[in-house]
Design a protein that fits this description.
It is built from eleven helices and 18 strands. By secondary structure, it is an alpha+beta fold. The strands form four sheets. Strands 4-8-9-14-13-12-11-10 form an eight-stranded mixed β-sheet. It has a four-stranded antiparallel β-sheet with strand order 16-17-15-18. Strands 1-2-3 form a three-stranded antiparallel β-sheet, with no helix packed on it. The longest helix is centred in the middle third of the chain and has 29 residues. The structure holds 3,4-dihydroxyphenylalanine.
């Protein structure tokens, strides 16, 4: 069963540029709604063009394969939810989840805003309150999420998350105890080693208003369920490589809408890889969903790209957006296969440096301009220099841009044109002076 909530329409790629605000970015019309620009507006067309691509729903796509593997693992009692439009209010993305007013994630330098009232969700948690309000007790929600971030092989401003959650009534607690015993038994029978260095206590407490027995049962259920899911995803890989048990580590974390909160890491190729965040739902957030106050819930959120990159050995996050058959035809629903690189095309690095004008420029503003100019042809951008002249007080910045196509060799001329365009766009957007 696929449940559609809210407006329920699959976003269509329909954008009409209309009005401009003084920062030069235009207002957006999306799905026939016009979002008037204001001082928050910071979405450019390179980002908007991703709305509605829905690669996480595309059959045989690695992102969709990971999604279905997790859905299959949890079984039909967890309702899969997809197709929720990415435009949400800051209330949904932050306030309903108890984010403090000064949380950095709220800044337009970190998140994409259509205007001060509407933004692109930065995480699938933005829908938790809404989904619980609809009365579904166990669900898995997958969606595209958007964040302003650096540019390298593992960061892309659009990626995918899956949110899973469960709420338990007091009358179900005895069954939960049995379920936990069963889960613990099946985990004991497989090749997994769980190191739990989390410390429930003052810094990461159970909530005082919960029945302690119920909170512990839900907390244990969260841990067993996620260890089981992680084994289902990564267990084969660990055993296949003959490297002993799959090693998983639970550590304390902080999220405004859960307590206790955890992060879970998996040891992969000798490195601890952070896989997900989770915890026992803050009762304030559940109450906002009209869930009765004696119910207790858990929630987790994970990044599908990060898991897919490891499972399928995909070396660059941009490949997930490729329409190249040489990429897409390597994968098929229900199976995890290692990506075979079709070729590694040469890269070309170029520096751009400039004096800032009157306006302060955030590095994420620079990265967005690079995306705007080069799209999928940029592999990495690094800030290589930043200084303020002691006499004039003028500030200068330098960035090294690495261009590389995943699909062909870029000509020198093509790279020069892109790089010249980048300079012009930086001047136009921020009134900088190239050096
Ligand atoms: N939304 C968090 C993120 O994007 C992940 C997360 C953490 C989701 C804890 C949860 C949770 O549901 O309980 O980093």
């Amino acid at each position: 069963m696929i449940v559609t909530l809210g407006r329920g329409v699959r976003p269509r790629a329909l954008h009409i540029w209309t009005r401009r605000y003084s920062n030069g970015i235009e207002g957006v019309t999306y799905n026939n709604v016009f979002y008037p620009p204001d001082e928050y507006t910071n979405i450019r067309s390179s980002i908007l063009s991703h709305l509605g691509r829905n690669i996480y729903l595309q059959k045989d796509h690695p992102i969709a394969i990971v999604r279905s593997l997790i859905e299959k693992h949890f079984g039909s009692s967890f309702v899969p939810i997809t197709a929720l439009p990415p435009i949400v209010s800051p209330q949904q993305n932050f306030d309903e989840l108890e984010f403090p007013l000064d949380h950095p994630g709220r800044r337009p330098s970190d998140s994409y805003y259509l205007n001060k009232d509407w933004m692109l969700r930065t995480h699938t948690s933005a829908h938790e309150v809404q989904v619980f309000r609809s009365g579904i007790p166990k669900w898995l929600l997958s969606a595209d999420v958007y964040r302003r971030d650096e540019i390298d092989r593992s960061h892309y401003p659009v990626f995918h998350q899956m949110e899973g959650a469960r709420v338990v009534e007091p009358s179900e607690m005895e069954d939960l105890r049995k379920e936990n015993d069963e889960l613990a038994q099946s985990l004991a029978a497989v090749n997994i080693q769980v190191e739990d260095v989390s410390t429930i206590g003052e810094k990461n407490p159970y909530q005082p208003w919960h029945n302690p027995d119920h909170a512990k049962l839900v907390n244990d259920n969260l841990k067993h369920s996620l260890n089981g899911m992680i084994y289902a995803l990564f267990g084969g890989l660990a055993t296949h490589k003959g490297k002993g048990p799959l090693q998983v580590r639970w550590i304390d974390a902080y999220f405004p809408w859960t307590s206790p909160s955890y992060e879970v890491e998996v040891l992969f190729d000798g490195k601890w890889l952070e896989i997900l965040g989770c915890g026992v739902m803050q009762q304030a957030a559940l109450t906002r969903s009209s869930v009765p106050k004696d119910n207790v819930g858990w929630a987790f959120g994970l990044g599908l790209e990060r898991i897919a990159m490891v499972l399928f050995q995909v070396p660059d996050i941009r490949l997930f957006w490729s329409k190249d058959a040489r990429f897409l035809e390597q994968f098929s629903d229900g199976t995890v296969t290692q990506f075979k690189p079709f070729s590694k095309y040469p890269s070309s690095s170029k520096d751009v440096s400039f004096w800032l004008g009157e306006r302060e420029v955030h590095e994420n503003d620079v990265y967005d301009i690079v995306r705007e100019v080069a799209g999928g042809l940029v592999e990495e951008v690094k800030e290589v220099d930043r200084f303020t002249h002691p006499k004039t007080g003028k500030s200068s910045r330098a960035y090294r841009v690495t261009y590389r196509s995943m699909e062909r060799t870029l000509t020198g001329e093509e790279v020069n044109t892109l790089h010249n365009d980048l300079g012009l766009k930086l001047i136009e957007a921020f009134n900088v002076q190239l050096r």
